[in-house]
Amino acid sequence: MDMVKEILDLEPKEGTVNIYWLGGTSYIIRSRKLTIGLDIYLTNACMGKDGSYKRLVPYQVNLDSLNLDYLIANHEHRHQLAQDPQGLLIESKDTTKYNYPSSVKDSEKQLKIKEKYIIELSRGQEIDLDNINIKAVFADHGADAPDCIGVIMAIDGKRIYFTSDTCYRPDLPELVNLGSKIDLLIVPINGREGNPDPKDASYITSWVKPDKVIPSHFWMFAEHCGDPGAFAECCRAIVPGTEIIIPAIGERINI
């Protein structure tokens, strides 16, 4: 089945949210009323002249055909939305709202997105948009991304915590302040560029204690590494009550 057609035609059941993994840290989140893009990367914009950071995962969708309601980026990096013009809906869909911290917002000005479609989302901010609540929380991705955010999204009765790129640190629970129960955690496992490796990612999962967890940020580039099998093994040992989901590219996950 064509992935775009499925996302558009397959409306989630009441009280259910559909999640589609596009590879790396890119996700589509679909509720009964909204379609949201999270950290979308659809090109080879990261690849260096020496062939480094070559995209290994085929492109799954053309965002222009999805007509997203919201597009969220968590920090300004080459492989994130900020430096991926082909992954943006620039002047093509005047209904899409863009949400990101100030560093990304500043870089987007050169891409000619109309100001009225940009909604700043920085640490500590909590905003209500249509039928969703989005809270920007702390994430530690080092000095190169000082305002990187994680996102806690409440949508159709479900709460999703996307850690974004962040290291594991003992004070992360205090700095993030999850609030109530998390239905789905999405956590990086690549162990590079300050991100947790599978073992540290399992520690984050143990702290969050979500109903379900999806490992993220692996196999998009050869340089990113990541072992979802090792992550699952660690989680089974220390968080036996959490369901571990390792999706295929484009697979639909229901929560």
Main attributes of the structure:
255 residues; seven-stranded mixed sheet; 14 strands; Metallo-beta-lactamase, Chain A
Q: Label the structural class.
A: alpha/beta
Gross morphology:
globular
Q: Would you identify the regions where 5 or more consecutive residues have pLDDT less than 50?
A: 78-83, 85-92
Major sheet characteristics: 7 strands, mixed
Tell me what the CATH architecture is. Answer: 4-Layer Sandwich
From the alpha-carbon coordinates, what is the Rg to the nearest angstrom?
17 Å
Characterization of the model:
- With 255 residues, the protein is of the alpha/beta class.
- It is globular.
- The protein has a single domain (3-254), classed as Metallo-beta-lactamase, Chain A.
- The strands form 2 sheets. The protein has a 7-stranded mixed sheet with strand order 6-5-4-3-2-1-14.
- The protein starts with a helix and ends with a strand.
- The chain has helices at 3-9, 63-66, 102-108, 172-176, 198-208, 228-238; strands at residues 18-23, 26-30, 35-38, 70-72, 97-100, 118-120, 126-129, 132-138, 149-155, 158-162, 184-188, 212-216, 243-244, 252-254.
Give me a quick take on this structure.
With 255 residues, the chain is an alpha/beta fold. It is built from 6 helices and 14 strands. The longest helix is centred in the C-terminal third of the chain and has 11 residues, at 198-208.
